[in-house]
Amino acid sequence: MKNLLKILVLSVFFIFVTGCASTEEKLSTEKRNSFQSVAIISADKIPDEVFYTGPEHAFGAALGGVVGALVAQGASTTGEKIETHIKNNKIDIQGIFHKEFTTIFRGSDNLADKIITTPGEADATIRLVIGRYGFGQPHGFSSQRKPLIIGGIEILDKQGNRIYAGSASVTPLNSELYGTDLDNYFSNPSNFEKAFKSAFNIVSRELVRQIN
Fold first, then answer.
1. Is the pTM of this model over 0.90?
2. Given CA atoms 43, 86, 55, 195 in this order, what sign does their dihedral have?
3. CA 107/CA 201 separation, integer angstroms
């Protein structure tokens, strides 16, 4: 679990340059055939803080000194406001990830015949991990904010031994993502759900591709 989180965090720089990132190695056919039933569960917790980048960061860096620090502090305040809205409106980020991943898993070519059951009954368990989540601008002049997600999976056998670990990520640079401005997010929290659903759909498609 700790090693997977380290991999997810180290991928942040790369995905901001490319818009996405993923694990190269796929699950082997032999390992995939080693289990016929699977439990899909969420990790125990998600990161404590929401990741946020906005124009305040760029302005703060340009101004420098005390003034720049005060401007950049506004970005932290925005991130905290986003986090508060997500919590107060009970937006289930882990639940959205679980639903998107399970739906795509069921529709995949080589996994559709796997029986999805409870951890105690399953041959293997897929644990869904969120390494980072938040929002940012798709480009410097945009009023929209789009999600950033770094997600991963661990597949464990019945004895708790790791069969596979993979990661996938998406940033605001991705044109498939849903996005709107901050006022719309705060006035209608369902926009947060739409944004996260679009992001976890992309991440889940990649994660399922790795094990399919």
1. no
2. positive
3. 13
